[in-house]
Amino acid sequence: MTKKGLGVANYDKRLMRVLRYIHDNPAGDMSLDRLADEAAMSRFHWHRIFHAMTGETCAQAVRRVRLHKAACLLLLEDAAPDEISRAVGYDNPRSFGRAFASQYGASPAKFRKQGVHVAPLMTRKEGEGPMFPVSVREEPPRVIAGVVHKGAYSRIGTAFEAFFGLCEANGLWPRLGNPVGIYFDNPEAKPEPDLRSMAGAELRLNEVPEDLEGFTISGGRYAVLTLRGPYDLIPQGYDALFGKWLPESGEMPGDAPCFEIYLNSPLDTKPEDLLTEICLPLAEKPA
């Protein structure tokens, strides 16, 4: 799936193509699937790439562009606010009025009367966060045994506690490798209570232990970011991987979820010495 003129992995052009689509079609389909199609990118990873490159989620960008378009129409045209509301994708004028007032500090009618200046659109995140080493390596398939977590990804620690308790109670550690976290869903596309992840570890034997669930991670090429430091740095690691390394790498992400490998334990390791690998599947390079 390659859009004409985008090249294999020109992320800036992909980003600008999506922003142009949002600006030119404010009342159109703004689903993540549609925006991923416009970018010709993996649906698993497009939202992370967009956020890391712009500092916004796709939903935030859509809202901002729609309201920016509405502000311009209010200043340049005589159409009624209700008409402008529909023209920028808000079917409910009250919802439009609330969103507009939240963004511009005035109702659409008052804004038009004031003739307030409209700031230019943001298109790219400014500045750089911390950098982390990234390598590309061939990974074997892995079978993960673990506990499924449903809900906010930030609360997966509860599932890890349950997993560790089962392992201790049943003497499972000799059958398991390093702990692994897998994140299956797009947090922009699903409500937080419906997000699915897994807290587990690599299985050294074929049979998944009772009371645990199994999941197979496909083998292949992966970009692996190594993060040294406390776990609260992990979001910055994702930003560096998706917002800096990936756009400069010439690589494209594959259609599979990321996973994290925890190489040591917070029980006997200082926070600054914790080692985490963030593994991003890569698409196969064309022959």
Automatic annotation (TrEMBL):
UniProt cross-references to Gene3D superfamilies, sorted A to Z: Homeodomain-like (1.10.10.60), Regulatory factor, effector binding domain (3.20.80.10)
Record keywords, A-Z: Transcription, Transcription regulation
Domain HTH araC/xylS-type intervals: 16-114
Highest rank taxon of the organism = Bacteria
Output the PROSITE patterns linked to this UniProt entry.
Answer: HTH_ARAC_FAMILY_2 (PS01124)
Which residues, by range, are in coiled-coil regions? none
Q: Is Transcription regulation one of the keywords UniProt gives this record?
A: yes
The question of whether Transcription is a record keyword is answered with yes
Which Gene Ontology molecular function entries are recorded, alphabetically?
DNA-binding transcription factor activity; sequence-specific DNA binding
InterPro entries of this UniProt entry?
AraC_E-bd, GyrI-like, Homeodomain-like_sf, HTH_AraC, Reg_factor_effector_dom_sf, SmbC-like
Q: Which PANTHER family match?
A: TRANSCRIPTIONAL REGULATOR YGIV-RELATED
> How is this protein named in the record?
AraC family transcriptional regulator
Q: What is the lineage of its organism?
A: Bacteria, Pseudomonadati, Pseudomonadota, Alphaproteobacteria, Rhodobacterales
